[in-house]
Amino acid sequence: MYKVDVIIPTYRPDKSLLELIDNLEKQSVRPEHIIIMNTEEQYWNDFVNKAGANPADKYDNIIVEHVSKKEFDHGETRNRGVMLSSADFFLMMTQDAFPRDKALIASLAKSLDEDVAAAYARQYPRPDCNLAERYSRKFNYPNEFIRKTQADVSRLGIKTYFCSNVCAMYRRDIYDKIGGFTHKTIFNEDMVYAGNACQKGYAICYVPEAGVVHSHNYTCMQQFHRNFDLGVSQTDHPEIFGNISSESEGKKMVGQTVNHFRHIGKGYLIPHYIIMCGFRWLGYKLGRNYQKLPQRLVTAFSMNKEYWV
């Protein structure tokens, strides 16, 4: 029987982390360990005091490792978590994603054939999710199982490399062969890994039977900052993104979302949505060209300001 560890980076956790851990402990396949890579020990202590409970006291399989905010890196911090694991598979999650049922781990694990580097879950919107973000979940997370390899680039484009560490399970043996997540990255470590895996002959699977609840209602400026960092990550990894465009997928999603608003009689939402998309596009294009910008603007535009220190 395979063993699975769960790795969760946390930052300023709140009581919802207790709910997430309880849900994971109740999975039909219980994690061997839940490894929490927490940024800033003081924030963890504050969480324990406010919650009135320490999950490490409640469960015997919790490992908590602290890093400073200066040390945190989307790729390397996750690599450090993997180094604490000896399981066959490890599940990367974020602190704001919650399993929809008790079969999450089992559903992802059964998809990890010998040549499958990673399998990622379907994301469902939270009850408070806005309509645009709700529809984007349908666009990015369809009903059908998808197995993707390098041969699919001509057909799927950038979506060949799509994978999300909001909830994705990895084979440790392939992870070791690939060399893990990129060791310094502003963002997008999951897609960089997936791209490397596909280029080395492995597959990435999307498993709709595995579901988590996860969504955000970002403001225009939050979208700008997030997409700036996305653009930076793609510029920093030309070996993955140099000959593949993501803008065609973006245009496709915008068109489908606008048509969806019209179809459901919510056409009044279209102007704000178009403005939001403008912020996304501007952030992305500036990020793609960040090397031409003054450093002060790069830092101001970025969501992850510590990355530039």
From TrEMBL:
<dbReference type="GO" id="GO:0044010">
    <property type="term" value="P:single-species biofilm formation"/>
</dbReference>
<dbReference type="InterPro" id="IPR001173">
    <property type="entry name" value="Glyco_trans_2-like"/>
</dbReference>
<feature type="domain" description="Glycosyltransferase 2-like">
    <location>
        <begin position="6"/>
        <end position="179"/>
    </location>
</feature>
<keyword id="KW-0808">Transferase</keyword>
<dbReference type="GO" id="GO:0016740">
    <property type="term" value="F:transferase activity"/>
</dbReference>
<protein>
    <submittedName>
        <fullName>Rhamnosyltransferase</fullName>
    </submittedName>
</protein>
<dbReference type="InterPro" id="IPR050834">
    <property type="entry name" value="Glycosyltransf_2"/>
</dbReference>
<dbReference type="InterPro" id="IPR029044">
    <property type="entry name" value="Nucleotide-diphossugar_trans"/>
</dbReference>
<dbReference type="Pfam" id="PF00535">
    <property type="entry name" value="Glycos_transf_2"/>
</dbReference>
